[in-house]
Amino acid sequence: MIRALMLLTLLLAAPLQAAIDLYQFDDNAQQDRFHRLTEELRCPKCQNQSIADSDAEIARDMRERVARMIREGRSNEEIVQFFVARYGDFVSYRPPVNERTAILWVGPVALLILGGLGILLLARRASRRVEEDDAE
């Protein structure tokens, strides 16, 4: 009975072991680069997860490609540019500043300024109403 239970436990644990990605590198520097790059690249399917955090098939493929390119001796910039060329600037958490990505850089600041102006105008309008009510 105990043997059957142990065998069942091992069979149920096998898929969990297969889900872990293990990559072999020549040294710790390559492994550190791999971890930095997989945190820096965004999963095209998940959109707000890095490829390190995503379980999507495309993220697994991207992690495998990053590991292969590191072993081939490619630079971090070459690796990021490969994925940007394939998936667009969105794949990088730090997209370059150019006309296509300007909204990503200017948009939040513009919204903050517009929101501040809106609050300022509402506050002025409210204070005028209070002054008018006090004058009556």
From TrEMBL:
Pfam families: CcmH. Residues 7-133 form the CcmH/CycL/Ccl2/NrfF N-terminal domain. The keyword Heme applies. Keywords: Cytochrome c-type biogenesis, Heme, Iron, Membrane, Metal-binding, Signal, Transmembrane, Transmembrane helix. Coiled coil: none annotated. The chain crosses the membrane at residues 102-123. InterPro entries: C-type_cytochrome_biogenesis, CcmH/CycL/Ccl2/NrfF_N, CcmH/CycL/NrfF/Ccl2_sf. Residues 1-18 form the signal peptide. The keyword Acetylation does not apply. Possible subunit of a heme lyase. Belongs to the CcmH/CycL/Ccl2/NrfF family. This is Cytochrome c-type biogenesis protein. The lineage of its organism: Bacteria, Pseudomonadati, Pseudomonadota, Gammaproteobacteria, Oceanospirillales.
